[in-house]
Amino acid sequence: MKPVAVFRHSANEGPGHIALFLTQHGIPWQMFHIDQGEAVPENADDFSGLVFMGGVMSVNDDLSWIPRSLNLIRDAIAKDIPVLGHCLGGQLMSKALGGVVTKNPVKELGWGAVTVADSETARQWFGDIKQFDSFHWHGETFSLPPGAVHLLSSPYCVNQAFAIGKHLGMQCHVEMTAHMIEDWCRAGAADLAANLASPGVQSAETMQAQMHEKLPRLNQVAEQLYLHWIHGIAPRAS
C-alpha cells in the first residue's frame, strides 16, 4: 500500500504515538520535515492518508508552505483520502475547508478535561468514551468548517475536535509521549512563565507529575481514534 504522509512543522512536534501505532499496525508511513524546508507534495494520490502534526506557528502566518498544505488537504478530501490533524493540523484542516482560526479566549497549556459530544458520529469515533484528560498546548482555536460534526469540547475551548466523514481534525494533543511532554516543558518555559495566571495553564512541574497517571489513558484514547481513522484507508496500489 502507499504510505501515510506525516507532516512535521516544528522540530519537537513529531508524530509521537501515531508513529508507534502505524508501525504496530503494519502501515507504512513517510515523514515530511516541513520545519527543515522539505516541500509539501502536490498530489494526495501518492499517499493512503495524510497526518498533520502541531507547530508553533499560526495557520494565518505568511508562510509559503501553508497554502500548499491547504491545497493538499482539499485534494485529499476530494479524492476520499483520509486526513488527520493534531492542533495546528486541525487548524489547517478547518481553514482548508472554509473555517477560520482565531485567538482562543485563554491559552490552554497542560492537562485538561475534554467532553465527548452526545451524537452518533462521536460514538463512532470514541466508542464508550465520554470524557478524558487530554494534553493541550495552544493559544488559537478553529471554527467548524461547513459540513463538520462537533466531537469534543473543553471548559476553555468549545471546538476541540470535528469530523467530516472519515476525516478528523483535533485541537487537543492525543499523540503525546512522556518525552514530548518533557521536551515541550523545556522549550516552552518562557510561554508557561508568562501565562501561569491563566486558568487553562499548568506549571511544567504539574504537567510532568500528572503525566504518569494520565498518559496511559490518553494513549488508549489515541488508539481508539487512530483505529477508526485507519478503517478509512482504502488499499491503494504502491
Description:
- With 238 residues, the protein is α/β, with parallel strands linked by helices.
- The protein has one domain (4-230): Rossmann fold (3-Layer(aba) Sandwich).
- The chain contains seven helices and nine strands, in the order βαββαβαβαββββααα.
- The chain has helices at residues 17-24, 65-78, 88-96, 120-126, 178-187, 189-195, 204-230, and strands at 4-8, 29-33, 49-52, 83-86, 101-116, 131-142, 149-154, 157-164, 167-170.
- It has a nine-stranded mixed β-sheet with strand order 2-1-3-4-9-8-7-5-6, sandwiched between helices.
- β1 (4-8), α1 and β2 (29-33) form a beta-alpha-beta unit.
- The radius of gyration is 16 Å and the shape is globular.
Could you give the topology of this structure?
Elements: E1 4-8, H1 17-24, E2 29-33, E3 49-52, H2 65-78, E4 83-86, H3 88-96, E5 101-116, H4 120-126, E6 131-142, E7 149-154, E8 157-164, E9 167-170, H5 178-187, H6 189-195, H7 204-230
Parallel strand pairs: 1-2, 1-3, 3-4, 4-9
Antiparallel strand pairs: 5-6, 5-7, 7-8, 8-9
Helix pairs in contact: 2-3, 5-7
Order of strands in the sheet with the most strands? Answer: 2-1-3-4-9-8-7-5-6
Strand count, sense and barrel status of the largest sheet are: 9 strands, mixed
E-strand count: 9
CATH superfamily: Class I glutamine amidotransferase (GATase) domain
